[in-house]
Amino acid sequence: MNAIEKRVIDLQERWETFVQSDAKLLRWLADQREIRVIDGFIKLQAEEHDYHAGDLFFSFDTPFVDENQYATALVTAFKADYDNADKEAKQAGQALPEWRPDEQKDRDPVTWLATTWCSFAELFGDNFRFLVAYLRPQQIDVADTSAYIAFVAALIAQLPDNTRVLFPDTAERPFADALEQNELVQSDKLELDMDRAYTELAQTSGGEGPGYEFRNLMVAAMQAGNAGYTAAFVTNLDNLLDLTTTQDWLQQAIVVHMLAGGVAMNSKEFTQVIAHYTSAIELAKKLRERSDPVGPVCLYQANMAVGTAYLVQEKADYPNAAEHFIAATKAAAECGDTQKGLYLIEAWRMAAHAHSGEKKIAAAWEALWQSHAAAALLPEEIAPTDTTLAEVGKALLQLTQKQHRWIGGSTPYAGKANMVRDAFTSVLGESWDTA
User: Fold this and answer.
1) Domain boundaries, the chain
2) How far apart are the C-alpha atoms of 416 and 39, rounded to whole Å?
3) CA–CA separation, 431 vs 435, rounded Å?
4) pLDDT tier at 174 (50, 70, 90 boundaries)?
5) How far apart are CA 228 and CA 233, in angstroms?
6) Selection from 322, 336, 329 nearest residue 364 by Cα
7) Between the CA of residue 107 and those of 34, 114, 161, what are the distances in Å?
8) Is the pTM of this model over 0.70?
9) So what's the pLDDT on residue 46?
């Protein structure tokens, strides 16, 4: 049993303690590394094995804007998961019982969502112990956290006994402490000691030679990086880069520089951020010259990283940011079919944001439409609604309405709002601009 498996078992034991209580919601306070272990625990629940709790988990990372939008999005996602499961069952010569969520009609959104889950739990309840909604609020852009907390509190008050809710809250900056006063909520601070877990993995993985040395150095660097861009981190960094140079490991060197850029970003060492991400770009170009298919992907990621760094530094450098986001679009065009569409949507969206900062409205307008066009390149498994296309459309709408002082006080795109809405409705469906 390795170090990660031990921590999964820890989570399983904590989960069992929770479900034996009268609480309806479990709030795990965790850092980002622990949240990744939670994600792994949830994914393991999809299959029968030693770590399966006997519960049916549905994961939702839907953004929260307001209770109407959120309830609609969760019901839609829940229905989509059922449809996918029904399709797989039919392909296997079976079929699931017919189930459809009720129409909302005049019911408030919380009651409608609760009723939807209740009807599912009633129909399929013999097949699981608990129906569990795994919410990911640390990935949700909640402008008003009190509104989200009120929604969740109202929801769990209406759920049946065989339904539970789980979500992780960031231990460093928890936003849902108000839920601790709710008797239906149980909060549990995880202390999985991930530093020790990574050390154990490195020590028990066995082996020898440069690959084994690289793994151990990476673990040491990540642990040192938790304290920031310190002398200890730089020492480990130099050792890693010396090793990758000696072995001519371009891809591993890119990984090291991306790690270093992230650590420097957290420490607000922006000179080092730019330097490391720029080094990653140069190495990715060499990787692409070797016809390595990973080269364009690495080049895209590095350009997106340095472009973002130029935006978030103390004084945003919009021209340099725009240059790198445009470079990212060129790299994205060389990526595989499973990545190309998604990458282009995001790269063009960020390029438009940088152009707006430069006050180049025509360039921003064109970039946003390029992002829209990239939706046609998405693979079947990625729905346009699962991308940032709605944000692209909203940005275009702003350009049709906003008064731009630098072009004489009016926009050249006035009157084109309906054209924008029609174009994005054809891809995203109705109400995308209000979600």
Assistant:
1) 3-194
2) 43
3) 6
4) confident
5) 7
6) 322
7) 38, 11, 22
8) no
9) 73
Give 375's Cβ-side CA count (13 Å radius). 22
Q: H or E segment at 56?
A: strand 56-60
Could you confirm whether domain 3-194 is CATH 3.40.50? yes
Structure confidence by residue, pLDDT tens digits, 233-264: 999 899 999 999 999 999 999 999 999 999 99
> Tell me, what amino acid is at 108?
D
Q: Which helix (H) or strand (E) holds 5?
A: helix 3-19
Strands (DSSP E) contained in 83-173 are 131-135, 163-170
Rounded Cα–Cα distance for residues 27 and 167 (Å): 5
Which residue did the predictor score with more confidence, 145 or 374? 374
Could you tell me the CA-to-CA distances from 51 to 4, 6, 187, 350 in Å, in that order?
12, 11, 22, 41
| pLDDT at residue 111 in the model | 92
- Phi first, then psi, for residue 47 (nearest 5°) are -130, 155
Q: Please, which residues have CB within 8 angstroms of residue 231's CB and are 6 or more apart in sequence?
A: none
Residue with token string 């809710």: 165
How is residue 382 annotated by DSSP?
S
Higher pLDDT, 217 or 355: 355
148-155 LR contacts (CB < 8 Å, sep 24+): 148/64, 148/70, 149/176, 149/178, 149/179, 151/64, 151/67, 151/70, 151/110, 152/25, 152/176, 152/179, 153/179, 153/182, 153/184, 153/185, 154/110, 155/110, 155/113, 155/114
Q: Where are the beta strands (DSSP E) in 171-317?
A: 185-189
d(CA 123, CA 61) in angstroms, rounded, equals 25
Selection from 175, 171, 165, 174 nearest residue 189 by Cα? 171
Length of the chain, please? 435
- End-to-end CA distance of the chain, in Å? 45
Residue 101 DSSP code: P
Q: For residue range 257-287, what is the model confidence (pLDDT) as tens digits?
A: 999 999 999 999 999 999 999 999 999 999 9
Q: Which residue has the tokens 């820890």?
A: 10
Find residue 131's DSSP bridge partners.
Answer: 56, 163
Distance from C-alpha of 398 to C-alpha of 413, rounded to nearest angstrom: 10
Torsion (CA) 173, 176, 178, 179 in degrees, nearest 10: -140
Q: What is the pLDDT of residues 88-99, one digit of tens each?
A: 888 888 878 888
